[in-house]
Amino acid sequence: MKSRIKYMKFSECSQKGGRMNAAKRIEKKQLAEIDMHGREQKPIEPLLERMPRIKINDTYYYENRFFVIAGPCSVENREQMEKVGETFKEIKGIVEGFSGILVLRGGAYKPRTSPRSFQGLGEEGLKLLKEIKDAVGMPIVSEIVDPRHVELFAKYDLDILQIGARNAQNYELIREAARSMKPILLKRGMAEGLTEWLGAAQYILEEGNEQVILCERGIKAGANDGFTRNVLDLPTALLAKEANLPVIIDPSHATGRVDLIKQLSHLIALSNLDGIMIEAHPSPREALSDRNQQLTLEELADLIEDIAQLREIYYKLNTLNNKDLKPIGAIEYNAQQL
Tell me, which fold does domain 54-337 have in CATH? Predict the structure, then answer.
């Protein structure tokens, strides 16, 4: 086990680099760290003093909750979303049973490589998401691509705003989304390093919004020879947690292969990462976007049952190591009581 017994020179972060805010950012930055065996490790500067509370509707969720964010890549029509809603009614109790947080995802605005590809339903897609949210009683997340859409997302009561990989360094969009004071799901850019990823997160914190959820979705890499869509960078995802922000994994975009999504989801469920984001569709072969990486709804339901069992194993293993990580009702608080 690494023993942190010696530190190299510290440097004070200049307050000119950013005003102090409710995030209470740590002002000391370690330049290097040496363990007891003389191995130098580059440390991660915490962005918050503790993991943030994520507020969804009127409830704050503390750390050790496992996010299950799932749904179609694109919101396509009412029939599709009604089928998704029926499945979510069935799996909602399973997710809540292992103290997870089930969130419906669906793209209403789709930034695509080709302008001729399906671009999403726009406002009509947000309307359909809101109808399913009300019918099933669950939070929703969708990608925001334009700063002018913040009020529109508020109109349809989006619980979480997603900044996609293509906009991971669109700082004006990030700032405007952060000012909504809604939780921000910040995907890692396709070629972003850890410093750039956490730098984008700081733009959110600087607006006084601590509710940041980081999402690793795979990066472009020269070693990728076409068997997977991207390269999943789990080491960087684990390091990002040292910044005191929750980190989830998107195995759908990371691999682009349904045969790998289940295996990776199993691994993530047994780790100290904070959740998964998975694409699922009633009929993937008819999907208007990303058909090759979307599970069927039946496959999604089976995977959720697997995750429920694996999370119980995870909690038991940590209990044996004297780490009581299993969330209980006491960590949920009504916002009005705080």
Answer: TIM Barrel (3.20.20)
